[in-house]
Structure formats: structure tokens, C-alpha cells
Amino acid sequence: MTSVLQPQREAPNGTYTFSSRPRPVPSRLKYREPTMMQNEGQVVYGNIMYDRRVVRGNTYAHQILPVALNFDLILILELYLEELTDHIEDVNVECQTDAFLDKPATPLFIPAKSGKDVATQIEEGELFHFDMEVQPVLEVLVGKTIEQALLEVMEEEELARLRAQQHAFQELRNAELVEVQRLEEQERRRREEKNRRIKQQRAVLEKEKETAEKIAARAFARHYLADLLPSVFTTLRDHGYFYDPVQRDIETGFLPWLMEEVSNALDKRHAALAVLDSEYICNFLFHINCGSSFR
Amino acid sequence: MEGTRISERLPPRAEPTHATVAFGDRALPRLSAELQHVELRVRQGALAALGERVHDAERAYEAIRAGILERLKLLLKDEEGSVRTRTAEVLYLLATHSVGREAMLRTHVVPTLSGLLDEPVHACRKNIHQTLKMLAEFPAGVSCVVASGLVPRLLMRVPEEQEDVRALVLSTLSSCMREDALPALANGGVAVLKEQLSHTYPDIRRAATSATLAISVPVEGKRRLCEEDVLPILVGLLSDHDLAVSANAAGAIMNTAVITKGKVQALETGVIQPLLCLLGRGHTAACANALRALTCLAEVPSARQQLLPHLPLLESLLRHPAPIIQRASSTAIQVVSWTP
């Protein structure tokens, strides 16, 4: 380590000079850097906290100071050899209190008595008499509760009574209704039955009457028609419905034809006569006669 | 509660959701103003408080005089489902008092209620039907309900509703039919009732049988019942566990047996034996209805023959404490022992 000796400077006012100026201890870098090699003149200041030369720990302990051997001496120092370690021997001194012993109870601190003693006490019946005082309170409480409960019960009761009354009324009403309806129905049925029977009876009577009339009519008709047949025949015969077919045929067929022919013949003769009688023919015949007479 | 100092805070409220009710005369005007408040919680609180108050008949009367019904009618059309449900509940509570019922008829609440029959919220519909049922249980109310033409719509709702609401609708319908059965008949009431007669719930059966009883009073109803073969179901119901159901079924049979067709059909389904069993079961209405049914059936000679051996039973009923049964049994004996 090069050290730079500080030039001795004369004190300006001669108060104080250092023979050796205090200077920070230069330290050696652990890892020398190449740049550092160049400027060897620069002093590297280190942190004394990380300086190995500074003694750590208790300075009252034994210290191992490095001994500088400058000359050849045979010294038998094995006896005095001590191991160099970082570990600093120290002496342990301990102190430990004993386990707690049971502490007796602290006596009560009773301060010394001073002044006069005065006491007061309220006896049983002096302030109030509980049973008497509590009564109005209780009355109100219980009374209100019961009143409310009674009200509610009364409501229900009233409604139940009303319903029961209604129910009874409904029963009666139902009874009456059904009776009325049943009797009505019965009446109706009976009336209808009666009507039906009357109608039936009437129908029977009608039929009887009709039958009687029929019988009467038949008897009368039979009687009336008893001599129907002969009279019919007579009438028919009178009217000429029974005829001899040949005679009829002659009468209807032959005789008219005959008459027709006769009439035709007569007509022809009549026509001829008429022709002869006519003027023209007379003239013609006269002429013919004259003519013939001329020939 | 350990210290002796009185706390600055107010005491704990029994119902945090209810609105605070003002004292005395101020209570109702304030509640009725709160009912129209914009905020939902205020309205709900006011409705809850009103519902509490209205249980008492006097408070109900005061509330009605303060014109609460108009506000409630408006609230029925609110968008919020819980508000509508609460309103319907308050209306139901009002309808349990007779002042309330009269006031509801005066202010025409029934048309507003009938507009809500298709309400999506189930609880609201239930309350509405409860209110309608309560209104239909007294004469003026029934005429109002029938006049508003609710019967066909209620008939349509019967198959669609759930069980508990269905029983309520059927009860309303039976009250309406007792008043006037013709609208129900015209809208196919018999078919609807026929389905409900064989339901498992006794409430529904009870209501359905009483409706059948009411519908069988007019002649048209009797004829329809015979045509649609309801009589076998009714004969089956005569041996039901619930005595009210059997009583109503016997009543329906008794009404139907007045016409000849009914008699014939009933006898075909073998109705006499169950009716005789019903006589012994101790329920006054059931007994009376059974006796009257037997009376109607005894018009037929074959039934008379079957019943002649049971005359001693009928005679024992002459000594029954209820006068209604005595009368019924005497007519029955008369008819059974009649000879042409």
C-alpha cells in the first residue's frame, strides 16, 4: 500500500498541526479491476464496517493479536498456540430467577378509620307496599289484555251466533220449501192424473156413443136398404137397362141403317124428280122434244 | 333496567312496523292522512295500525264516520301487493261488524272488490274472498253481490283457485244461489259444482254440497241435476264422514226428488238405504233432510213398498226433541202409509 505522505504544512496561525494528519484508512479491493491498475495513485477508500482489520465484538475479551516475527528466534510457542477463528470466545454468564412461589394473598388494604360512621337502611314497608301498589298496575295490564281478548272472542261469538241463527232459518226455509214443492208436485201429478183419467173416460164415452150411433145407423140402413134391391131392379128395368141384345142390336144397328138407306133412296128419287121438274130440264126436254119432232 | 335513573329514550315499542297512533280525536285524521302518504312504509304502518284499531266495533264506527272507506277503496288500486293485501284485510275486519257492512254497501265497495278478482297476490285474493263471503252472508249484501253480476265471474274462478280460496268462493256462491239461483244455472253452475263435489277437502265438499242444495230449488235446477247425472255422486256423499256434507247432500237429493225424473234416477242409484243410515246419525239437519227426502221418494209405489218395513224407525223419530224432526217424520209416515 503506498501511502502518501502529506507534506508538512506550516500552520498559518501556528495553533495546531498534525504530525500525522488523520486520514481514512485506504482499503484493498477484493477484486482488483483492470481499470484500477492504471491509476494506482488513486486511493480507494473503504467502509470500515466491512474492514477485516477492525476488531468486532467485545473488546474486553481475549484478543488474538498477530505477532510480527522479525528475527530468527526459536521460540516454543506451541503452548501458547491458540486457534485463530472468527469466532470470538466469550464467556456466557446466565442468570435465572427461581420459579414463582405461591404468593400469599395480599392483605386487604384497610385504610385507617377516620370520621364518623353513619348508616341508613330502607326497611320492608317504608318506601312502598308492593302488594298494594302493584294492584292498579296489574289491573290495567290484565284488564286491557282481557278486554282485547274478550272483544275478539265476542266478535267470533257474534258471528257464530248469527251463522247458527241463519242456519236454523235456512233449515226451516228448506223444510218449508221442500214441503211446498213436494205438495205442489203432488198436486200437479194428481191433477194431471185426474185430467188424464177424465180424458180417458171422456174418450171412452165418446167411443161408446159413436158405437151406439154406428149400430143405429147400421140398423136403419139395413132397414132402408131392405127393399132397395127389387126397387132398383124395377127402376132399371123401367129405364130400359135390361134389354135383349139381339133386339137391341136390330133396333140400334139394323133399323137405322135401313132407314138411312130408305131415306137415301127417297132422296135420290126426290133429286131426280126435282131435276125433272126444274125449268131448265123442262126447256131442255121441250127442246129435245121439239128437236126430235123436227127430225 | 338496573339503574335508578329514568332513561331518556322512549320505551320499546310493541309493534315496530305499526305507525304511532295519535291520541284521542287526532288519531283517525292523522291515520287517514298517512294512508295517502307517498312513502310506502308510512302507508303500510298506517294500514297496520288501522287494522289493529278496527277490531273494536266502536273504533270501527269512528273510522267509518271519518270516511276511511274512500281511502281504502283508493288503496285497493295501489301498485304494491302488500298494501293491497293489508287493505283487503282491513276491509274484512270492517265487514265483520254490521256498521261496517252497511257502510260498505253505501259506498259501493263491492264493484271495486270485484275488479280485483284477478289479483296476482294470493293473500290479497284470499282476503278479498273472505270479505265477499262475509258480505254475502246477510240479505242486503247478497242482493248487492248478485246485482253486480259477480256470480258468473265467481263461477269461472272456482276451478282456477287454490283449495282454501276455493272453499271461500263456493260459500259465497252458495249464499248467492240461495238468494237467486237462476244466474248461476244460466252460466253452467251445475257442471262446475259437479267437479267440486268429489274433492278431498271437507270444506270444499261442504260448500259445494250447500251450493248444490241451493241450486236444486228452482225447477230448472232440478232438471239439470238429473240430466248431468249428479245424483250418483250425491248418493255417494250421503255416507261421508263429515255430517254437514251428508246433510247437504240429503237436502239436494230431497229437492231433486220432487220431480218424477229425479225420483226415478234416485231410486235407480239405490238411495233409500243410505238415507235410512243417515236417520240414525244424530245430526238434526241431516236427519230432517233425510226424512224429507224419503217423503218425496215415497210418492213412488216401489219406494213405498221398500219403506213399509221401516215404519217403526220413523215412528220412533216422532218422539225426537226437535220439532222440525217431529213434523218431518209425521209427514213421512203419512206419505208412506198412503194407499190409493
Helices and strands of chain B, in order, run as: HHHHHHHHHHHHHHHHHHHHHHH
The number of helical segments of chain B is: 23
**Share of helix of chain B, binned:** 55-70%
State the helical fraction of chain A. 40-55%
Strand content of chain B: under 5%
The outline of chain A comes out as elongated
**Number of beta strands of chain A:** 0
Distance between the termini of chain B: 92 Å
How many DSSP H or I helices of chain A? 5
InterPro entries (chain B): ARM-like, ARM-type_fold, Armadillo, RSP14
Organism (chain B): Electrophorus voltai
Protein name (chain B): Radial spoke head 14 homolog
Family (chain A): Belongs to the flagellar radial spoke RSP3 family.
Give a description of the structure.
The complex is a heterodimer of chains A (295) and B (340). Among the domains of chain A are: 83 residues; 53 residues. Helix content of chain A is 55%, strand content 0%. Chain A is built from five helices and no strands. The longest helix of chain A has 97 residues. Chain B contains 23 helices and no strands. In chain B, helix 16 packs antiparallel against helix 17. Chain B is elongated.
Short description:
The complex is a heterodimer of chains A (295) and B (340). With 295 residues, chain A is mainly α.
Summary keywords:
heterodimer, A: 295 residues, mainly alpha, 55% helix, B: 340 residues
What is the secondary structure topology, with strand pairs?
The complex is a heterodimer of chains A (295) and B (340).
Chain A: H1 34-38, H2 130-226, H3 228-238, H4 245-277, H5 279-294
Chain B: H1 27-34, H2 40-53, H3 57-65, H4 68-75, H5 81-95, H6 98-106, H7 109-114, H8 122-135, H9 139-147, H10 150-157, H11 163-179, H12 182-186, H13 189-197, H14 202-215, H15 219-227, H16 231-237, H17 243-256, H18 260-268, H19 272-279, H20 284-297, H21 301-307, H22 311-316, H23 323-336
